[in-house]
Amino acid sequence: MTYWSPVADDPVTRPPANGFRQLVAGAVGNVVEWYDWHVYTFLAVYIAAEIFPGKAGNPLVPLLATFAVFAVGFFARPVGGLLLGAVADRHGRRTALTTTVLLMGASCLLIAATPTYATAGMLGPVVLVLARLLQGVSAGGEFTASTTFLVESAGHGRRGLFASFHYVSATIGQVLASGTATLIVFTLSEQDMRDWGWRLPFLIGAVLSLVGLWIRRGAEEPRGRWQMERRPGLFHALRHHPRESFLICGITIGGTIAFYTWTAYLPTYAQVNQGFDKRQALLVGTVSLIFFALIQPLGGLLSDRLGRRPLLIGFAVGTAVLCVPLIDLITPGSFLSLLFVQCAGMLLLTGYSSIAAAVNAEVFPARARAAGIGFPYSLTVALFGGTAPYVGTALDAAGAAGVFPWYVAALCVVSALVYLRLPETAHEPLEQ
Questions:
Q1: CA distance linking residue 204 with residue 184, whole number of Å
Q2: 140-190: per-residue pLDDT in tens?
Q3: CA distance linking residue 6 with residue 16, whole number of Å
Q4: Concatenated DSSP letters for 159-192?
Q5: Where are the alpha helices (DSSP H) in 43-92?
Q6: Eight-state DSSP code of residue 262
Q7: pTM, whole model, 2 decimals?
Q8: From residue 78, how far is each of 131, 246, 250, 252, 336 by CA, in Å?
Q9: Per DSSP, what are the bridge partners of residue 55?
Q10: Domain 19-228+238-420 belongs to what topology?
Q11: Within 13 Å, how many C-alpha atoms sit on residue 102's CB side?
Q12: Where does residue 155 rank: exposed (0-12), middle (13-18), buried (19+ CB within 10 A)?
């Protein structure tokens, strides 16, 4: 790995003067992005009923179709990570960030206007797939652009703290999505939710995208000597840094399956397998996400002091060992048991999520950092994170719901092996 030793008074390489403003610009726009992305998950049951026809009286069929579209969005993320990562490396991080939030707003409007199967037949599913593809491109670019922006805006010894705000902001977006969905579900009747209520959160997301655009346009471009070099080609990182690309995949695989298991799939699992109603599951999800957001900076600060490897290894080993018994602790209909399990899973996950942005940024040299992170990270998330709800639901439909937590544990073991060989980068200067 290559590191650049920054000179404190060098105007080319020093971090932006107003670190707090940079933190807000990177984080607040990210809130909007992830609100838009996750509100789809929380309303999947309603979307399934209106956009996809049921078959043979089995409610899992339209739900599987809805989660399949959820996965389609993930498979567009590597394209977004590569294309918008290249934009960030060639034209600046801020340009990529404003592009992602515009794309997400457009996709939200498209989902809000999606016709139902009853009124337009197959046109509804086609429009929904197109909207999720657009969201996928935007989300793929969002992680890589906001990761590099936040870490490069941090001073030495604060990269873990700044990096933690990627998942703080992403989780706040999820909380807003979950909270908005919960509020609407509790306020409207079941029939109103099916008729038009599920569209409201997507309209709100389109408006929030304009707010995110306004905030990001006022951000300062992180400075670095990489801006003075010849701009890299689209596949520069894959050609010249293949080891680093594979390393990003290994770092991500356990974290992404754990993240989408605890935050996205568990509420649906509780409804389908443990007798929880929609309102109860959404409320548990919202409370546990607030807890998750609050503990992220603590993980980032701890990694700046102790290093990245102890937190990563603790996450992977802890999740591999405890995932199965934790899910087995869920008692049918028990609010407290579901809340405990989800919060415990998120506490373990913090060892990865709070520092993932810093670890990824520290792997690649600055010149190819955004695109270098974007493609392998988004590809891994698509293969293992985006498919988590679908795999879990499919296993349940096959009568093998108990296999899913073992699947999560096995992928965390893979990442644990990578973390054990990962060099410690917390106290090294970041190449600028």
A1: 12
A2: 888 888 888 888 887 778 888 888 988 888 888 888 887 888 788 889 888
A3: 13
A4: HHHHHHHHHHHHHHHHHHHHHHHHHHHHHS-HHH
A5: 44-51, 60-75, 77-91
A6: I
A7: 0.79
A8: 16, 14, 16, 13, 38
A9: 58
A10: Growth Hormone; Chain: A; (1.20.1250)
A11: 10
A12: middle
Dihedral sign for Cα 265, 391, 137, 82, please.
positive
**Sequence letter at residue 190:** E
SS3 1: coil
Side chain identity at residue 169, one-letter code? S
- CA 286 to chain CA centroid, Å, is 16
Query: Phi/psi at 58 (nearest 5 deg)?
Result: -95, 110
- Give percent helix, percent strand, percent coil of the chain, each to the nearest 5: 80, 0, 20
268 neighbors 129 (Cβ within 8 angstroms): no
Place of tokens 């579900």: 185
Q: H helices then E strands: how many in the chain?
A: 20, 0
Domain spans of the chain, in order of start: 19-228+238-420
- 272, 330 in Cβ contact below 8 A? no
Q: Using CB atoms within 10 Å of the CB of residue 147, give its burial: 0 to 12 exposed, 13 to 18 middle, 19+ buried.
A: buried
Residues 236-258: tens digit of each pLDDT? 667 777 888 899 999 999 999 99
Q: How far apart are CA 70 and CA 390, in angstroms?
A: 8
- Pinpoint the alpha helices (H) of 188-307: 190-195, 200-217, 236-240, 242-260, 266-274, 278-306
Lookup: tokens for 373: 């992170």
